[in-house]
Amino acid sequence: MESTRYDFIIIGAGVAGLTAAQYGARSNLKTLVLENVSSGGQALNIMHLENYPGLYPGIPGSEFIGKMEAQAKDFGAVMQKTQVLSVDKVGPLFTVKTADQTFSSEALLLATGAYPRKLGIPGEDTFAGRGVSYCATCDGPFFRNKRVVVVGGGDSACDEATYLSTLAAEVTLVHRRAQLRAQKAVAERVLRNPKITVRFNTVVKEIRGTQAVESLLLEDTGTGLTSEAAADGVFIFAGSVPRTELVPVLPHDDGGFILTDDRMATPIPGLFCAGDVRSKQFRQVVTAAAEGALAAHSAEKYVRDARSEAYR
Ligand code: NAP
Questions:
Q1: CA 66 to chain centre
Q2: What tens digit of pLDDT does each residue of 154-179 get?
Q3: d(CA 236, ligand 1 centre) in Å
Q4: Given strand 107-110, what is the order of strands in its sheet?
Q5: 3-state secondary structure of 128
Q6: Which residue's CA is the nearest one to ligand 1's atom 18?
Q7: Could you give the CA distance from residue 234 to residue 237 in angstroms, rounded to a whole number?
Q8: CATH 3.50.50.60 domain locations along the chain
Q9: Could you tell which of 52, 124, 176, 207 is best to mutate to test the pocket of ligand 1, judged by most ligand atoms within 8 Å of the CB?
Q10: What is the spatial distance between Cα 11 and Cα 302, in angstroms, rounded to a whole number?
Q11: What are the tens digits of pLDDT across the range 215-229?
Q12: Which residue range or ranges hold the FAD/NAD(P)-binding domain (predicted)?
């Protein structure tokens, strides 16, 4: 199968990928973005993006992504909705295969993001979509005036608990430690919310029900005592797992997130990595955007350098 040639291929159209697309296209790289679902990644789940610099008083994540996609396309990036099946490098070129097409490029950006980590407890898979959710923005409206439990102590759990408190009759946030790990302002919003009860040092052992979620079996991590809490829904925000299966050989941290240098470069020449799939301290829309811009800049330099060497 003959391949369609690009200078720069980006896998993943989240914030990092779309930023890289815009920067890549603007620097005159023939740029292709491949994404198997809708553009936006996890930013689509942001009800109200309130901390992106200059975007004040903030906009919905979906609107933000719509603007990013339009900006990347207007600068010349090509967007294609398709699932990438494999990535290889033969000589100076990457080969990217989908079910019916093959693409090649000198530079490649892995911006494949991450997906929600499961708790791995009984009932979690059984009641997925029937009370178990990993996205409050998507499923919150089904729990209007109902009782929901939110699991986790990070920014996602706190933000989503705050959002759910505007819909649900009561929200219980269950966290395995004695304090929240979320940013101070985000955590304080939860602790001050009269509709949210926080149960520290508590884990969910089982999700129970018949047709849908009816209760949770909770365990106090200090005493080991268990109790059953009635709930119509449980929203799980236990961190995320990076999507790295296309290039499994790359160095990664303990969580499986890919290690790069500060130019977003991996040890494979021409292969860059940005966004939630990358190892880092602070996962924000603004850091994903910055990494996308840096990756595109590095890709452009890589392509130009490789070509000038080739013609020497
Ligand atoms: P996170 O910071 O990794 O937090 C995950 C939470 O889940 C932690 O509290 C962790 O507990 C808990 N957890 C993990 N495995 C668990 C298990 N098996 N059972 C029970 N609890 C478990 O993930 P996140 O909240 O999704 O945030 C990810 C990144 O996105 C962060 O960098 C965050 O700052 C960023 N983010 C930012 C915003 C914002 O700026 N508004 C919003 C959302 C996300 P421990 O605390 O004990 O580890």
A1: 17
A2: 999 999 999 999 999 999 999 999 99
A3: 10
A4: 78-81, 31-35, 8-11, 107-110, 271-273
A5: strand
A6: 119
A7: 10
A8: 4-115+240-311, 118-236
A9: 176
A10: 18
A11: 999 999 999 999 999
A12: 6-292
